[in-house]
Amino acid sequence: MESTPMTDGFHVMVEALKLNGIDTIYGLAGIPITDLARLAQSEGIRYIGFRHEQNAGHAAAVAGFLTQKPGVCLTVSGPGFLNGLVALANATTNCFPMILISGSSDRAIIDLQQGDYEELDQLGAAKPFAKAAYRINRPEDIGVGLARAIHAALSGRPGGVYLDITAATLGSVLDVETAKKSLIRPVDPAPPQIPAPESIARAAELLSQAERPLILLGKGAAYAQADTEIRALVEQTGIPFLPMSMAKGLLPDNHPQSAGAARSYALGNADVVVLIGARLNWLLSHGKSPSWSETTQYVQIDIDPMEIDSNRPIAAPIVGDIKSSVTALLAAIEPGSVKPSPAWIEDIDARKQKNMRRMAERLSANPDPMNFSSALGAVREVLASRQDVYVVNEGANALDFARNIIDMSVPRHRLDSGTWGIMGIGMGYAIAAAVETGNPVVAIEGDSAFGFSGMEIETICRYQLPVTIVILNNGGIYRGDTHDGTPSPTGFVRDARYDKLIEAFGGVGFHCTDTESLAIAVKEGLASRRPTLINAVIDPTAGTESGHIQSLNPKSALQK
Ligand code: ADP
Ligand code: TZD
Ligand code: MG
After folding, report:
1. Which of the residues 160, 235, 314, 318 has an alpha carbon 20 to 30 A from that of 468?
2. Which domain holds residue 372?
3. Where residue 560 falls among pLDDT bands split at 50, 70, 90?
4. Do 66 and 154 reside in the same domain of the chain?
5. In angstroms, what is the span from residue 67 Cα to ligand 3's centroid?
6. pTM
7. Does residue 218 have its Cβ closer than 6 Å to ligand 1?
8. What pLDDT is recorded for position 559?
9. Does one domain contain both 389 and 323?
C-alpha cells in the first residue's frame, strides 16, 4: 500500500514565498520560526539575520520601496513581534509595501490569558498600525494568507501588512497534493489605476491658466518608477520642480528646472502647484500660510482618493497611479498651452543663484573643529562622482544639512527618516539598499540617530556589505554637552570614538577631525567596499535644537 506523501506548514510557507518571487527575508530567529528561516535559506531564499527586529523591519520596508515588491520581515512571537511593529507602522505611514510575518504562541492559551511563552494577541496589536492584518490558523490557508498579504501591501496606496502564523500551523502536516493546490500567485497585484478623463481635462485647463506653476515631486513619485514620464512632463511644460527629500534624484538636483535652491520662494509664490505623490502634511506646512500663498491652487495626483482635500482644497484632483496619470496629463496638454511666465522663471533663477553662492561659501569655509557644512562639503565632493551610491540619512541637524548639501542625480537613491521623522532607520535601510542592489551605501548619521540601530554594524560586517557610515559626531541630540558633571538630557559621552566599535567586528574605523581626512576616508570606504565607520568630529556647539523644525517644540503659554 502506497502512503500519501505529506508535507508541513514550514514547507508550504517557503513554497508560497518562492512562488511569489520573495527572494530575501530580513529576520531574527527564535521560537517558533527558526526552522522556517533555516528551510527558507536551504531552499535558496537569501536570509539576512539581524540583531534587533526593528532594524530587520526597516530593511524589509525600504526593500519594498526600492523594488515594488513587498519586503518580508520574519520575527518570533510576543516581544520580537512588538520590536518589529515600529517598522511595520513606519512602512504604513510612508506607503512602503512590507509584510511582517511573525510566529505566534498557542491560541487557546493566549485567548484565556493562561500565560504562554511570549504570549500576546499579536493580530489585535498589529491592526491599528498596519494597512491590513491576517492570521493563518491552518496549513492549507498559508497560500491564501500570503496572497492576501501581497495584495494588501502592493495595491492602491502601498503599506505594511501583518501576517500572523501560529506555531501549530507551522508544525501541522497535510498531504502534498492539498498543499500544492492551496498555493496562489496573485495576478497583477498592483494594476494600473487609470484616472478619469474629466479629471485630466480639469487639471490641464487649470495648468493652462497658470503663470507661476510648480511641480512638487514626493516619494510616491519615486516609488511609482515613472521616471521617464515625469521627466517628460517637467521638460515639455518647462515648469520648475521641487523634490521632497526622497524624491531627490528623480530629476537630477542640478537640472536647470530644479527650484530646490529657491524652495521657500517657489512654494510661497506659485499660483498652481502639481503635487505628484506628495502629501500636504507637516513636511509641506499643511499647505498653509505663511509658507504657502492663500490663493495657490492645486492639482494633486495620488492613488488614494481619501488623500484629496486632506489639508487644503484641491482644485483639480487626479486619482490614479502616477505613471498612467502623468502620461494622460501630458497627452491632454496642448503643446504651448502651459506657459510659465518668464518673470517666474527668472525670479526663481535669481534666488537660486544667490542661495547657491551662499551655500558655496559655507561649504568652503574650513572651521576647526568641523561644522555640519564643512564636513558635508567634503562628503559632497566625493559623492559627486559616485552616482551609484545610495545615501541613507537620519538625525536632526545631520538630516537637515545633508538633505540640502548632498546632491542626488539618480532616482530612489536617497533614503531617509521620511514622513515621521523617525530615528532608527539608518542601518536597516543601509543593509537593505546594499543587499537589494549590490551598490555601495553611505549612511550619513547623527550620533544620536546612529545609536538606535548601531548594533547592526555586526550584521554589516557579517555579510561584508559595502556600507560606509559617516557619524556626524557633535556629542549629542542636536548638540553636545560642553560642561562636566551631570549629563544634560541631550548630551552624550564627550569625544566618543564610534570608529572603534566597528573594529570589534573586523570592519574599518576612521577618526576624522578635518575635511581632508574625512574626504579620503569616504573615498576609501567606497573604493574598498569594506564595512567602514567614520567618526567625523563636529563642533559640539554647531547644531540647533531640533534642526530646522524647532518651531514644532511646544511652548508653555506662561513663557510668552
Ligand atoms: P513625501 O513625504 O515625499 O511628500 P508622501 O509619503 O507624503 O511623500 O506621499 C506619497 C503619496 O504618494 C501618498 O499619498 C501615496 O498615496 C501616493 N502614492 C504612492 N504610490 C503611488 C502610485 N503608484 N501612484 C500614485 N500615487 C502613489
Ligand atoms: N525617537 C525617535 C524614534 N524618533 C525621533 N525623531 C526622536 C526620538 C527625537 N529625535 C529627533 O527628532 S532627531 C533626534 C531625536 C532623538 C536625534 C538628533 O541627534 P543626532 O543629530 O545626533 O542624530 P544632530 O546632528 O545632533 O542634530
Ligand atoms: Mg548629534
Report:
1. 160
2. 365-548
3. low
4. yes
5. 31
6. 0.98
7. yes
8. 72
9. no
